[in-house]
Amino acid sequence: MSDTKFQIEQKIVYPSHGVGKILEIFEKNFRGSEMLYYKIYIEVSDMIVMVPVEKAEELGIREVVSADEALAALELLSDDFEPILSDWKLRYQKNLELLKKGAIADIAKIVRNLYNRSKIKELPILERKLYDLAKKLLIDEVCLATGINEKDVESRVHTKLEPPGSAQKIKHIIEDLDDEDDDLMDDVNGSSKSKGRSDDDEDDDDDDESSDSESLDNQDDFDEDDED
To answer: How much is the pTM?
Structure first.
């Protein structure tokens, strides 16, 4: 077990899931072969997942960033942001892809971009969930990397997004023929009311079949990666 990249009790980050802890490293028979697995407790969703050791790098599982990297990610929140797509599906997919990459800088960009979009118009349900998840993932990793308590990190995030006394930034929107937010809400409302699945995450299921990553508890809207 000592030659595995991560060790028991080590804190890690699982992209789109968040900070976790390696509870166990064990062997399990899969299709007639013995495979080594990580058993990981995911704190943000209070669930346990099992990931093949040989697939961990492919799935983007990584160490927690350094304190300097965490603080640099916070600074990104106040940077000028990219022009905002008005096409709801394109905007959502772009941010979802960043979430799956799992880099803390990418998570910070999602928080920054969706926060600024929300200042123009209320976010649709799925985007709001994506924003809330990205913000939670960012705060959790910054807390772990720096040792700063959660309340103080939340305050820093808010200050970076809305500096006291600062003038509101002009929001540059890439216009399509129309803004699809309202038209699409009827399509997504039904599926988003039930916890655990979104149409835009279908590619996750394919990834999971190849990785044989399993979940032992109920999962949230972005946890399809672990379905067997």
So the answer is: 0.71
As a dihedral over the C-alpha atoms of residue 80, residue 83, residue 89, residue 95, rounded to 10 degrees, the angle is -30
The amino acid at 36: L
Give the span between the Cα atoms of 58 and 75, in whole angstroms.
28
Determine the distance from the C-alpha atom of residue 61 to the mean position of all C-alpha atoms in its chain, rounded to a whole number. Answer: 12
C-alpha span between 134 and 78 (Å, rounded): 16
Q: Locate tokens 């797509």: which residue? A: 85
Q: What is the DSSP letter of 166?
A: P
Q: What gap in Å lies between CA 98 and CA 54, rounded to an integer? A: 23
78: tokens are 């106040």
Give, for 124, the enclosing helix (H) or strand (E): none
Confidence of residue 48 (pLDDT cuts 50, 70, 90): very high
